[in-house]
Amino acid sequence: MVISKKNTNKLKIINPSGKIEANFFELVYEVARQIPKGRVTSYGAIAACLGTKLSARMVGWAMNGAHHANPKVPAHRVVNRKGMLTGKLHFETPKKMEQLLIKEGVKIKNDTVVDFEKLFWNPLLELEF
DNA sequence: CGCCTGACGAAAC
DNA sequence: GGTTTCGCCAGGC
Q1: By three-state DSSP, how is residue A104 classified?
Q2: Is the pTM of this model over 0.85?
Q3: Which has the minimum average pLDDT: A5-19, A27-41, A62-76, A102-116?
Q4: Which of A21, A55, A66, A127 has the most beta carbons within 10 angstroms of its beta carbon?
Q5: Is the CB of A66 under 7 A from strand B?
Q6: Separation CA A28–CA A105 (nearest Å)
Q7: What are φ and ψ of residue A65, in 5° steps?
Q8: Domain around A36
Q9: Mean pLDDT confidence for A34-40
Q10: How distant is C1' of C9 from CA of A10, in Å?
Q11: 3-state secondary structure of A85
Q12: Per-residue flag: A22 CB under 7 A of strand C
């Protein structure tokens, strides 16, 4: 799988066949999958990493399909920029997200990641397309 | 087709 | 300083 920056500086995933896949979503998933266990990042950070920082909404929105994505996407490690688990309601059960994070060693308080800044994983720094 | 809707984020009130 | 508005853009209706 190849990732390239074609026109407009938007990133797109291109299969070996040269066919363009559902760019945005797949790309978001791709980045999300890179998030280390026990770490978290924000929608905006992912968006910025993809070059579409102005549309963080799309990143979160893309997560709608993350459930039936393959391979599995650790969507629970993605929160908004304040560290709030705003997407918990979109999981199988509202508690799922929090439980998954706690399981990985991330502490949650009031639907917010404790020490968010410390656990924050910046795709811009860790990844390079 | 145009209009509405977001798991966001920043800026304007 | 909490609330609303707007930009963003793909998809559903």
Answers
A1: coil
A2: no
A3: A5-19
A4: A66
A5: yes
A6: 24
A7: -90, -5
A8: 2-126
A9: 94
A10: 12
A11: coil
A12: yes
Strand B footprint nucleotides (protein C-beta < 7 Å): 6-10
Return the pLDDT at A50: 81
Q: How many Å does it take to go from CA A109 to C1' C10?
A: 33
- Burial of A27: CB neighbours in 10 Å, binned 0-12, 13-18, 19+: buried
Q: What is the pLDDT of residues A80-97, one digit of tens each?
A: 999 999 999 899 899 999
Q: Which helix (H) or strand (E) holds A113?
A: strand A112-113
Residue type, A12: K
Work out if A52's Cβ lies within 7 angstroms of strand C: yes
CATH number at residue A37: 1.10.10.10
> pLDDT category, A67, cuts 50, 70, 90?
confident
Residue A73's nearest CA partner among A83, A86, A84, A87 is A87
How many structural domains does chain A have?
Answer: 1
